């Protein structure tokens, strides 16, 4: 799914192969425009500790972080992001385009 969304948005650079928190930092610094996570597993739920700090860093740098449905991440539900599906972290400029591409790709499944 990720590769189809990236293609639809027009990103051509190779992905960074680094830890989740480092990916948030790359988006916040402007080294990457997008960090996208979406598990195709119906049972996998993202963990709060993999995302909470990165959300703050990205937001403070002017980026934007939501789930794939455009909802803010809910870190108040316990150890897992039970009220969210996937992660979309962007530089802010392309966020709506990425969400639209995610919706399009998911509708074709």
How does this structure look, described?
With 109 residues, the protein is an alpha+beta fold. It has one domain (2-107): D-Maltodextrin-Binding Protein, domain 2. Helices cover 37% and strands 10% of the residues. It has four helices and three strands. A three-stranded antiparallel sheet has the order 1-3-2, sandwiched between helices. Helix 1 packs across helix 4 (95-107). The radius of gyration is 13 Å and the shape is globular. The relative contact order is 0.21. The mean pLDDT is 89.
Question: In brief, what are we looking at here?
Answer:
With 109 residues, the chain is of the alpha+beta class. The chain has helices spanning 2-9, 20-29, 52-60, 95-107; strands spanning 34-37, 64-66, 87-90. The protein has one domain: D-Maltodextrin-Binding Protein, domain 2 (3-Layer(aba) Sandwich), CATH 3.40.190.
Keywords summarizing the entry:
three-stranded antiparallel sheet; 109 residues; D-Maltodextrin-Binding Protein, domain 2; single chain
Write the layout of secondary structure elements.
Elements: H1 2-9, H2 20-29, E1 34-37, H3 52-60, E2 64-66, E3 87-90, H4 95-107
Antiparallel strand pairs: 1-3, 2-3
Helix pairs in contact: 1-4, 2-3
- What structural category characterises the helix and strand content? alpha+beta
User: What proportion of the residues is helical, as a percent range?
Assistant: 25-40%
Question: What share of the residues does DSSP label as strand, in percent?
Answer: 5-15%
Mean residue pLDDT: 89
Shape by Cα distribution = globular
Q: End-to-end distance, in Å?
A: 9 Å
CATH architecture: 3-Layer(aba) Sandwich
Count of DSSP-assigned helices: 4
CATH class: Alpha Beta
The poorly predicted ranges are: none
Helices and strands, in N-to-C order? Answer: HHEHEEH
Count of extended strands? 3
Q: Can you summarize the main beta sheet?
A: 3 strands, antiparallel
Gyration radius, rounded: 13 Å
Would you tell me which CATH topology applies? D-Maltodextrin-Binding Protein, domain 2
Number of domains: 1
- Order of strands across the widest beta sheet? 1-3-2
């Amino acid at each position: 799914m990720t590769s189809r969304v990236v293609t639809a948005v027009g990103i051509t650079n190779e992905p960074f192969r680094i830890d989740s928190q480092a990916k948030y930092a790359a988006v916040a610094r402007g080294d990457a425009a997008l960090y996208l996570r979406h598990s195709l597993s119906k049972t996998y739920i993202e963990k709060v500790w993999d995302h909470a700090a990165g959300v703050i860093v990205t937001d403070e740098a002017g980026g934007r972080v939501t789930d794939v449905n455009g909802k803010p991440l809910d870190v108040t539900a316990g150890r897992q992001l039970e009220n969210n599906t996937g992660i979309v972290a962007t530089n802010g400029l392309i966020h709506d385009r990425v969400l639209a591409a995610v919706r399009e790709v998911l509708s074709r499944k």
